[in-house]
Amino acid sequence: MNPVQQFEMHQQQHQQAITTQPGVFVQPAPGSVWMPMPPAIQGVPTGLEYLTYLDTIMVHQIKELIEIVTDWETKNKYVLKNANGEQCYYAFEESGCCERQCCGPQRGFVMHIVDNFKREVLTIKREFKCCGGGCCGCLACIGCCQQECIIETPSMGVLGIIRQRCGCMSSNYDIMDGDGNVIFQIDGPCCCMLCGCQDKEFPIKTANNGTVVGAITKKWGGCFREAFTDADTFAVNFPGDLDVKLKGVLIGATFLIDFMEFEQQSQNRNNGV
């Protein structure tokens, strides 16, 4: 099943009748409107033109009823919106059923991000690693345990890589461009701070001098939502004039952080940990 067919299936599961072919406008998620499509821009990967004018992206996870009332792990799905609530992308996970149930948040996956014309604009790939990154990144010093995601676009290939760094009581990440140069670093909050009833912020700092230029923030969803689901909402803030390719890489970092930090918390709750 190709990404377009998977996109149609996921949309239909949410009561959206999709019968068109790639290149034809489709309906946004319920309660949303599509962000007006900007014109093509030279040097910008096809479909990422939306990001050129944005400094904030909201990532909303869509939760299915079966996952709320049971421990059955389904494929993750997300809606990406701008600060005005206009939808610009839809993201859906491709992964194996056995790996989702047995490996949980450690699982490998391919995340497909498509625009309102069903064009795949970003592909996020993560391989399964059995040892993971350890509690709060303590095993990330071992190469085979380092978690990472590769961010690609169909028109330009690899845009960048997110790789876990060794940390003590916090999860840290390097944000690299397509040439492997570390451009940004993300130093997560202390492990104990991830359990509180407040937003969790992961500052984005320049690699050369540590200047904070943005943040990936997991929004507090309220007691019921946090206790019984892992339907998370993230705000991704970055400079408006940042290279659009790096904006795409930072969006990719959001998905890795969600799986590593917050999907694990949900699994622990379900297991009574």
Automatic annotation (TrEMBL):
Record PANTHER family: PHOSPHOLIPID SCRAMBLASE, PHOSPHOLIPID SCRAMBLASE-RELATED
Keywords: Calcium, Lipoprotein, Palmitate
Family, per entry: Belongs to the phospholipid scramblase family.
Entry protein name: Phospholipid scramblase
Function: May mediate accelerated ATP-independent bidirectional transbilayer migration of phospholipids upon binding calcium ions that results in a loss of phospholipid asymmetry in the plasma membrane.
The keyword Lipoprotein is assigned to this record: yes
Pfam families for the chain: Scramblase
InterPro entries membership: Scramblase, Tubby-like_C
UniProt source species: Caenorhabditis elegans
GO molecular function ontology, one term from the record: phospholipid scramblase activity
Required co-factors: Ca(2+)
Keyword match Lipoprotein: yes
Gene field: SCRM-1
